[in-house]
Design goal:
eight-stranded mixed β-sheet, 11 helices, alpha/beta, two-stranded antiparallel ribbon, about 300 residues
Amino acid sequence: MDSNSLKAFVTIVDLGSFSEAAETLHLTQPAISKRLAALESQLGSSLIDRSQRHLQLTDAGARLLPHARRILDEFHNMKVALSASEDEIGGELDIIASHHIGLHHLPAWLRRFNREYPQVRLNLQFMESESAYAQMRKRNAELAFVTLSDSMGSHFTVYEQWPDPMVFVTGPDHPLASLTAPTLADLSGYPALLPDTTTATYRVVSRLFLEQSLPLTPQMPTNYLETIKMMTSVGLGWSVLPLSMLDTTITRLAIPQPVTRMLGAVGLQGRRLSAAALALQAIVREDQEKSQKTDGTPPSDPAKLPETN
């Protein structure tokens, strides 16, 4: 069975479009249609229903899809194994980073990576962590640097993880800023500026309020922490932000309940990392070990997932 035909089939399904799939695979639309037709002819079944306005899998296509992904994973693993003996690390490396990690962690890692491995061509995408998980399941990157979540399921391997302590904050002129010892009950009377309800950060904060039977009033949800910080600084509400983002534009609230989320590097289970991905992972691990020695936090266990429900 031709792996190129399987790749064409999977890409068409993932993108929901022949033209977009052709562009992604650097083919003409007739060429990618021909690959799909050849696969259907070989299997003796129609795989995609073309009669609908939006492409839909046939029953045969739905049954083939998970097998096609596993076969393509094995082709990937075979290529990685065959290239393992090469001395020079090169080729392409597709990675995804959340916006926060991209702004506050990734620059140092990539600066060193580009210096040490100039033959590697990096393809970098920025997106929300939940979107990153979806893209990883579609095999659109080798590594994703994201906020870890128990909702990501069993599809992923956590290669590295580290704690990201967070603090309750508000603007300097907000009424909460004048309280010496504010409580969650005090916060519940004001709007909360938090990421979307689907995020691990929101679930951590929501859980604290649920445990005390307190109302939580989210306002204008956005997953861009820099935007949340700006809205908080001008007094639109209180928020929970990483300790590393604390500066003079926002005031830390002395809430006794600790909040920590976990950040990490994940890959897809059953899919081997290339030499380039392993090299980047090593840089990340070394950087985090140095940070843990500096701030005194114990090293995290990559085998454990965060409990954020």
